Hints:
By secondary structure, the protein is of the alpha/beta class.
Amino acid sequence: MTDVTVVVVAKECLPGKVKTRLTPALTPEGAARVASAALADTIATVRALPASRRVLLYDGVVLPEGTEDFDVLHQVAGGLDERLGAMFDAMTGPTLLVGMDTPQVAAEHLAPVFDAPERDAWFGPADDGGFWSLYLRDPDGALLRGVPMSQDDTGARQLERLAAAGLDVGTLPGLLDVDTVADAELVAATAPDSRFATAFAAERPAALAGAAAAAHDSTTTGGAR
């Protein structure tokens, strides 16, 4: 075990509140079930890490299964940079942040952090230009506040902030965040044995049926003109 706190940032998986970009291909309820499975995969990976403490940075009321022994820190109001900044300010030692949108994450993706926790920072880039993980040996929320989030240059801007602070930054493997149905298909293929892949496969037939019906309606409407 290493003296590293691992924090999972998550929101309660309620229909219409999570994975909204998977709709209308999936129903809001189906998207929530897929998000819940993604979170469950992430929690399982975090539980397998040699961490000294596990924390759930949570936006919600009902806690997800598997976090009964996690410390819970509720997200503050404000943008994502403010919420993550507040979390890092609340930590007192080396801290590793992991998001809930990369259900394919495995312990080996995060192994470099535990092999070299003395490094100033570790950065996990996301394929969409953001980041899926961030480790700070000396947590400081000022390193995140003001970084524009949810943009295609968020990762680059965050790295610039770390570099400007003079930190020695290591890079973790790049992973794809699940935002769209196309993303979900790729991630499910990457991790076919995951809870996420199983949940997505269960919802996908309805999505395909809906797409076929929409195509049929479009063709019928077009033919009637």
